[in-house]
Amino acid sequence: MSRVSIFGGWLGAIALLGCVPVLQASEEVTLTNGYHLLCDHREEASGRVRMFTSQGSDNFVEVDAAEIASVEFVPDPPPPSSKMVKDAEPKLTDADVHQLMAKAGATHNLDVDLLASVVRAESGGNIFAVSRTGAQGLMQLMPGTAAELGVTDSFRADQNINGGTAYLDALLVRYHDHLALALAAHNAGPLRG
To answer: Considering the entire predicted model, what is its pTM?
Structure first.
C-alpha cells in the first residue's frame, strides 16, 4: 500500500488543488505566513480578497486583505520553440502515460491515482503544457526545479513524470505526509511554503 493512498484523503487534497491557483497564473501573491499562491486575478470586498485560478473560474482562495504581504506580476513565458515540438517524443496514449505514472509511483511509494489527479490538475494531460509562470510538461515543473531533479527535457513524459513524482515525494517528506500542504507547495513552486 502506498504511503499516500487513495483513501488517505487525496480527494480532499485534490479539491484543494481546484482552489490553489496552478495554471495560467498572472500574479504571485505572497501571504504573511510565507505561502505563495499564483492567481489569474483578484477581487476585494469588505476587507477580504478572493484569488481566482483563471478568468471565468469559480475556483478561488479567499483571505483577509491583511494576510497579503505582496503581489508580483508574473509575465507570460515564451511559447515553446518549433524545434522543441519537432524534437519531442511521439504522441503517447493514456495507457502509456498511466504506465509511466505507475512506474514512478512504485519507485516513490505513491498511489498512481494520486499522480493521475496531479497530472490532470496541473496540465490536463498535455505533455507540451506551459503555464504563464513557465512551468512545463505534464506535472508542470519549473525549469530550475526540473534541472535540480535531473530532468533534462520537461517535454519528455518519462523524465517529467519521474521528476514530478520525486518532487512530490520530497514535499510529502518535508510536510510529514500532509498531502494538502505538499500539493499546495507543489503548486506554489520550488520548495516554497
So the answer is: 0.59
